[in-house]
Amino acid sequence: MVDQARARRLAKRIAAIVATAIEYEIKDPRLGFVTITDAKVTGDLREATVYYTVMGETVDAEPDYPAAAAGLEKAKGVLRSKVGAGTGVKFTPTLAFVLDTVPDAARQMEDLLARARAADDAVARVAADAKPAGEADPYKTPRDDD
Hints:
Layout: H1 4-25, E1 34-41, E2 47-54, H2 65-87, E3 94-99, H3 102-128
Parallel strand pairs: 2-3
Antiparallel strand pairs: 1-2
Helix pairs in contact: 1-2
């Protein structure tokens, strides 16, 4: 029997433990700009997928995704030990790290929305100066038969 509520609680706890360990305990410089965004645990609580994102050193700098992935892969054993000690479950889940694409998708959606707003503004400017193609009052008025 799968207890989804327990799996969600465990996933939340795993994300917190891994994030804290990366920030304070693991001294790998490749993990300096890694942020844990989410975690998912299978129903049998044996496997955990931890989602992460990587920021650049500056706002304009491109993040080093391969180095962050290598650093997480190297620290996987230590992180799993921390998860086992911090959760107290019978079987410590194996950890798999997956790059989170949500920030990139959100940035792409923001760009698309900005382009749509610009197109709407252009249409509104054209419509403001537009004049009707026919008469000002296109509806025919009934004739009075006097």
